[in-house]
Amino acid sequence: MANEVILLDFWPSMFGMRTRIALREKGVEFEYREEDLRNKSPLLLQMNPIHKKIPVLIHNGKPVNESIIQVQYIDEVWSHKNPILPSDPYQRAQARFWADFIDKKLYDAQRKVWATKGGEQEAGKKDFIEILKTLESELGDKPYFGGDDFGYVDIALIGFYTWFPAYEKFANFSIESEVPKLIAWVKKCLQRESVAKSLPDPEKVTEFVSELRKKFVPE
């Protein structure tokens, strides 16, 4: 059976980064197709008619939507190499809890850091730092969130790192001084080829966010 894998994505998306990392962790060859979100391709609209969002993973013509679901799917289909989710049911439930926490809490908080100003931005920054501290506390002294092995929660979180310099620039604070252990974890993750190949240059992300900010925060 043919094993055609296509990823419809947008380069600065911290969600798409998850899927790229998971595919590379498993050694899966895939075709990357960059989407113009202002002019979405017919394939994107056909494969994700509900949300019309990237990333979309297309495996042998069938779409899988939502990045965190894509990572689970990749782990199940290519189960022979580098397990992403823990085999223990309780540990697996915990990993899913923290990935859900990242999606529900971190995304909204980080958006307020770069897309607002004044009191709203300060409140967003405070929330953002508290969420990072909660995640740092969960990491503890472990090398990775799941213990000794790079896995599901690491993949869920690491893409946000590429936006950190933009948060710092537009909200005027230092993430490393707030959560040094989390930044040490970032540096460890970046040593993995799957991560290094999948994450864009944070400077380019900052330039992208700078243009985006002009639309959300008029001078």
From TrEMBL:
Q: Where is the GST N-terminal domain?
A: 3-82
Going by the UniProt record, its keywords in alphabetical order are: Cytoplasm, Detoxification, Transferase
Cited Pfam families: GST_C_2, GST_N
Q: What is its main location?
A: cytoplasm
Localisation: Cytoplasm, Cytosol
Give the EC number.
2.5.1.18
All copies of domain GST C-terminal, residue ranges = 88-208
Q: What class of enzyme is it?
A: transferase
| Leader sequence residues | none
Which GO molecular-function terms appear in the entry? glutathione transferase activity
CDD domains from the UniProt entry: GST_C_Tau (cd03185), GST_N_Tau (cd03058)
Presence of keyword Nucleotide-binding: no
Q: Which GO terms describe its cellular component?
A: cytosol
Q: What does the UniProt record say this protein does? A: Is involved in the conjugation of reduced glutathione to a wide number of exogenous and endogenous hydrophobic electrophiles.
Q: Which family does it belong to?
A: Belongs to the GST superfamily. Tau family.
Q: What is this protein called?
A: Glutathione S-transferase
Q: Which organism is it from?
A: Arabidopsis suecica (Swedish thale-cress)
